[in-house]
From TrEMBL:
InterPro entries assigned: Ig-like_fold, Reg_prop, WD40/YVTN_repeat-like_dom_sf, Y_Y_Y
Signal peptide: none
TM annotation in the entry: 794-815
Domain Two component regulator three Y: 724-784
Protein name, UniProt field: Two-component system sensor histidine kinase/response regulator
Acyltransferase listed as a keyword: no
Alphabetized Gene3D superfamilies for the sequence: Immunoglobulins, YVTN repeat-like/Quinoprotein amine dehydrogenase
Domain of life of the native organism: Bacteria
Keyword Kinase applies: yes
Native species: Bacteroides thetaiotaomicron
Pfam families reported in the protein's UniProt record: Reg_prop, Y_Y_Y
Swiss-Prot/TrEMBL keywords: Kinase, Membrane, Phosphoprotein, Transferase, Transmembrane, Transmembrane helix
Length: 849
């Protein structure tokens, strides 16, 4: 471990690296803006709040907005929803433990039942101005309200608002006082900050108020915050930030520190007007929202502030008034501003360093094409043009006008081998070119455009070039296969990469001709046999292999352009794409390395992925992106290296380096929500209540059973996993049990499940999602009942059965009637014939007598 650290420091020093260190991340924060051009309807923000489901709520001067990382839902009174709110100037929101969102506006209180979507207006009697500045829900689920003219609470038993006065409370009650902020301390007491009347404490159990002496001349408290150490911070109007202490009985208050704005000190607080205070637990820092930007104070260096604001070129942020500072469940720090919308920053410690061999990172544009690190720590870095050699005591630029494709090491000759565009092979030692092999001076290079040099386990050099394979045997024999009669034509293709497997056979990557597997006696070229794996013979999904990896288990992996990661199937003798099955990012794998635990690290076109193969070939993927500290999300072909526990991956903005053993992974909780349900293209919330009640009595997110009447032909379910740093990286999977045979995998741009013309019956909708790093969360389900049309219902079939039975009964009755009639006629005819016969006998006897 000591050697590893020393070696890494050596590389860091010699490469003139400029990584982003965790200790400096407060000085190098990257803020992402969400404002009107990004979909936020209004940029005059009062507050940023996250509810217990994970949604971000943004109260503004012109309405309330709910944000899910992708889309915004608006709550305001307008021609579509007239009279929805008491006033569109929404000042604050807070959720209780009964899924109700309490909304404070310039004209009073509204309560949104998140389960049913019903909005209720509540009026407080006894005051003449109803501006509601602050809402606080205690741990006991009791709601307290801070108005411009006093304080109130919600009486759940009576379902009404109660104004707190000297008639129903003890002590010095803040009657008719302008309440600005309410904080619950660790004892369960409420601290109340007021305009021009200072600080109050409300002892809930005793129903008693205590009024503290003035903190400042105007005694106006705008914000209160108790940090993780239990320290109370008070933000004021015009008198800066106070750090205060209370006596053990909480009856007296003392000022420990007062931090004021000093125009001559860039490390003072940004302004004497502190609107909001919050703590970042990742950096143990205090964040202040002020009249002039934000100030950040590291708790370990109390009194020194890093100020991000419009007038600070070193820490520029295009904001003036910051009304709110907030930390969400996953550690993102949010700020809400007056005029420029919402910003958020990720302060998590980075697990990656970025090395800039040429440049300082800000203007670096030269891509890394290949790299190699020697055992002694010396580095060989290939760029778009040129190779740099750097060691402890020297830095040398080699072949500045040529592009290197591959850098490798020959244990036999103890030389570093450079495969160069139109430069053949250069053998180097100690940063110097010892010998250059070209078509003009040797017999094993088919073309001077050399992509790859591989030394096999016997010390033979195998070259991949523009015109096929060349070999230089250890005994001195040299061959160019394109010039040998009777040799398989596959060995004359353009070869871009070569790998040797455990059997000593070679695997060749070609340019648009698939993969070539070379077997036979490698010492005898005439005995070699070639097997082609390509799209045409269906043995490879695409014809563009980029890189190989032989893992510790003997499996052969290939990274491709178009089908991502592929795995060799020994039994079927073919390559199969496993990219989608493992839910890997993008569709390209350009570089691969394996760590000491058998994890695969893949450089893709959408980030760096770690693939952990568990039992029965099941894989777990963790994706890292620029959100985790990477310089870029696109990694170059075969520009990676692993040495002594440290990985190097080249991209267009430098080299990403990290120690997989020392990585601190950032875990984002997944709050998978159903954001909307559309029935025949119409949102569930927009369907008239009489019809909606037949579909669901709840909002989309709280619907457990969805009933689709027969009058509707299709429905769409929209969803989001409510992560906000890089939500476009989230992946989703859904299926409808009873209809789908497999999961549908979609990205963030297609987070909709659409079904049409489903047969009547019962189904179960199943939904899963990842966070921004590829971790899959728990499955969410919803029952869906497709009602049959009236002519296909059970009672319709009963009527059909009754009608059928009646019809059959009628037929039976008619047949029976006719049979009886026929029988009656037959009997009647028999009687008639009998009478006739008797008459005939009588007259015959009389006549002949």
């Amino acid at each position: 471990m000591v050697y590893r650290i020393f070696w890494l420091l050596l590389i860091t020093t010699t490469l003139l690296m400029f990584p982003v260190h965790a200790q400096d991340r407060l000085k190098n924060l990257e803020f992402k803006q969400f404002s009107t051009p990004d979909g936020l309807p209004n940029s005059m923000v009062h507050q940023v709040y996250q509810d217990r489901d994970g949604y971000i709520w943004i109260p503004t001067f012109y309405g309330l907005f709910r944000y899910d990382g992708y889309e915004v839902r608006t709550y305001k009174s307008n021609l579509y929803t007239p009279g929805l709110l008491t006033n569109n100037n929404v000042l604050c929101v807070e959720e209780d433990y009964s899924h109700r969102l309490w909304i404070g506006t310039h004209e009073g209180l509204c309560v949104l039942d998140k389960q049913t979507g019903q909005m209720r207006k509540m009026q407080l009697e006894g005051i003449n101005k109803h501006r509601l500045n602050e809402i606080h829900v205690t741990k006991e689920n009791k709601v307290y309200l801070g108005y411009i003219r006093g304080m109130a609470y919600y009486d759940a038993g009576q379902d009404t608002l109660v104004l707190m006065t000297h008639k129903n409370c003890k002590g010095e009650v803040p009657e008719q006082k302008n309440v600005q902020t309410i904080l619950e301390d660790e004892n369960g007491d409420l601290l109340i900050g007021t305009w021009q009347d200072g600080l109050y404490r409300y002892h809930i159990k005793e129903n008693k108020f205590t009024h503290y002496p003035p903190l400042s001349e105007n005694n106006s408290v705008l914000s209160l915050f108790q940090d993780s150490r239990g320290v109370l911070w008070v933000g004021t109007s015009g008198y800066g930030l106070y750090k205060v202490n209370f006596s053990s009985d909480k009856q007296t208050l003392s000022i420990e520190k007062n931090y004021r704005y000093d125009p001559l000190n860039i490390s003072s607080i940004p302004s004497d007007y502190i609107y909001s205070i919050h703590e970042d637990l990742q950096t143990h820092s205090l964040w202040l929202g002020s009249r002039d930007g934000i100030g950040i104070m590291n708790m370990a260096n109390e009194g020194t502030f890093i100020n991000y604001k419009e007038s600070n070129p070193e820490h520029y942020l295009p904001v003036r008034e910051v009304n709110t500072v907030f930390r969400d469940k996953n550690g993102l720090m949010w700020i809400g501003t007056k005029g420029t919308g919402v910003f958020h920053a990720d302060t998590h410690a980075r697990s990656f360093d970025v090395l800039y061999p040429r440049g300082n990172g800000k203007f670096f544009t030269d891509l890394i094409s290949t790299l190699y690190i020697e055992e002694n720590g010396a580095s060989w870095i290939g760029f778009g043009y040129g190779v740099d050699y750097q060691s402890r005591d020297k830095k040398i630029s080699l072949i500045p006008s040529k592009r290197p494709y591959h850098i490798s090491y020959s244990p036999t000759s103890q030389e570093v081998l450079l495969a160069i565009h139109d430069g053949g092979v250069m053998a180097c030692q100690n940063g110097k070119i010892i010998h250059q092999y070209k078509t003009s001076n040797c017999g094993f290079i088919p073309h001077d455009l050399v992509y790859w040099v591989h030394e096999d386990h016997k010390g033979n050099w195998w070259l991949g070039t523009y015109k096929g394979v060349g070999v230089r045997y250890k005994d001195g024999r040299e061959y160019c296969f394109s010039r040998m009669p009777g040799i398989d034509a596959l060995l004359s293709k353009e070869i871009t990469c070569i790998m040797e497997d455990n059997d000593g056979s070679l695997w060749l990557a070609t340019n648009n001709n698939g993969i070539v597997h070379v077997t036979g006696n490698m010492e005898q070229p005439e005995t070699l046999h070639c097997q082609n794996y390509c799209m045409e013979n269906k043995l490879l999904p695409v014809n563009t292999p980029l890189c190989f990896l032989l893992d510790k288990s003997g499996r052969i992996w290939v990274g491709t352009e178009g089908s991502g990661l592929c795995l060799y199937n020994v039994q079927d003798d073919c390559f199969e794409s496993v990219h989608q099955a493992y839910n890997l990012p993008g569709d390209m794998v350009g570089s691969m390395e394996e760590d000491n635990h058998g994890n695969l690290w893949l450089g893709t076109n959408q980030g760096l992925a770690r693939l952990t193969i568990t039992g029965e070939e099941k894989g777990r993927v963790r994706t890292f992106t620029v959100a985790d500290g990477l310089a870029d999300n696109f990694f170059n072909q075969n520009a990676s290296f692993y040495r002594n526990g440290t990985f190097y991956f080249g991209c267009s903005r430098g080299i990403v380096t990290f120690d997989s053993e020392m990585m601190k992974e950032k875990h984002s909780d997944i709050s998978l929500r159903i954001t909307d349900i559309l029935i025949d293209g119409k949102s569930l919330e927009q369907i008239p209540e009489q019809q909606k009640s037949k579909i669901s009595s709840f909002t989309a997110d709280y619907t457990k059973t969805l009933i689709i009447p027969s009058a509707y032909t299709n429905f769409t379910i929209r969803f989001a996993s409510l992560t906000y740093n890089q939500p476009q990286l989230n992946k989703y999977a859904y299926r409808l049990q009873g209809f789908d045979t497999d999961w549908h995998y979609v990205n963030a741009a297609n987070r909709n499940a659409y079904y049409s013309q489903l047969p009547a019956g019962e189904y179960v909708f199943e939904l899963r999602a990842t966070n921004e790093n590829g971790d899959w969360g728990e499955m969410r389900t919803m029952e869906i009942l497709i009602e049959p049309p009236f002519w296909a219902t059970w009672w319709a079939y009963l009527i059909y059965a009754l009608l059928t039975a009646s019809f059959l009964g009628l037929i039976w009755w008619e047949i029976r009637r006719r049979l009886m009639l026929r029988n009656r006629k037959y009997l009647q005819k028999g009687e008639t014939d009998k009478v006739h016969h008797i008459k005939l006998q009588f007259f015959s006897h009389f006549y002949f007598r």
